[in-house]
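Fig. S4 source data, part A: sequence.
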Amino acid sequence: MAHEEERPDSQESPEPVPLWRNRDFTLWWGGTALSSLGTGVSAIAFPLLILATTGSAAAAGVVGTCASVGLLLGLLPAGVAADRYSRRGLLIGSSLVQLVTMATVFWLVAAGRPWVSLIALLAFAQGLASAAFRGAAAPLVRRVVPASQLKAAFAGAEARDYGAQLAGAPLGGLLFSLARWAPFLADALSFGAVALASALLRTPLGPDARPGTGPESASDGADRAGPGPSSGAESGDAPGGRSGRLASGLRDLGAGLAFIRDHAFLRYALLWSALTNMMLTGVGFMFVVALREHGASSSTIGAAEAVATACALGGALASGWVVQRVSGYRLVLCVSWMVPVGVGGLVLLAGRPWLAGLCLGASLVFVTPLNVVFAGRVMATVPDAMAARVLSAMGLAAMGLGWPAPLVCGALADAFGVEVPLIAIAVGLTLLAAVNHVVPAVRQLSTEPDDGEDDGEDDGGSPPRTAEPPRDAVTG
């Protein structure tokens, strides 16, 4: 495998091949599709298992909380590690850890010993490993896909995730009804699939050598480096031992956070996604609560959720077409107003589950194209050397505010009725929509990142780097 500097640049590269003929992208897409499906299968099986074993909803909540806590605690360290160590090694290692933890759950259930405390501990370990995987996977798409095809690649990833979500729950319920251990075995095998896909990728995954480290530590060397630090590690790590590595890691983390601070669009994207995800998490919770309050059965609620998810999947499948024809700025404004209208519609339609599901789904249909625009812009702004740190920090912000939403919404619903939290969320989303009309960073989405726009000009930051060009014939 050639070093980075030995590969021809994009000006000498041939015209990109169609995305689905890109070997590394399709291999990665297929491996992560299986893994996402396996995760969807086990996500429904875990609460079913704990409820069947203990009859306690609180115990089921503890297991889910342990997994979430592990994920949130691991995201920032995972981002630092992925910018310092072999990303391929982290992808494979974290996938194998998840395989082992899920295989252990399978063995406990098959042996008739589903101890809740041990399963909660395994869920926490699963969350930490998932964070490590996310950190290493965050910069991967632009390593295997040319810059001109990034939006199409992100659209394919969104469709994959929605498809896995749509299929995972019914498949998990079916497998659990056949044998309680079956969903966990399926999930364990899915992690084996994504580990194999990560190992078979031909493109060097980085991190690249920092200036002055020499060609012998280029990113393909980092892929083969095993557990040791790649060229991305600071040269001062060794003399200080463990404390020196910790201090260096904190400096790297601080550099990633400073990069977000110095770029107006990244600050906007972090705050907007965090607040929006927090409120949409509340919507998802209140959707179930409101329909149940109006007498809908569990199967009817599940079917209504499937309608909403199917609408979102339709948006994901059409997102490649949409982002080519509608500017990112118009998408932001459109989605910003559609979502609060849809949430307000739930207040009126909660007694009609099918219409409620259709109303929510229609309001979310353009969320996926918007995600594609945001992902493409962020990847074009962040250099590969700190991509994992920046993206992990933004992911932590997006997920970190979501966990209290069901608690707050539930308390408001108990105190004032199910309509109040939905109205409060609709008002909050309306305020965000209004703010989008006056925030300068939003207007940057009306142009392509490589049009010469300087995302950091208002803060004195350096101009953002565009997504890296295709590296070799494999990536187009």
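Fig. S4 source data, part B ends here. The mean pLDDT is 80.
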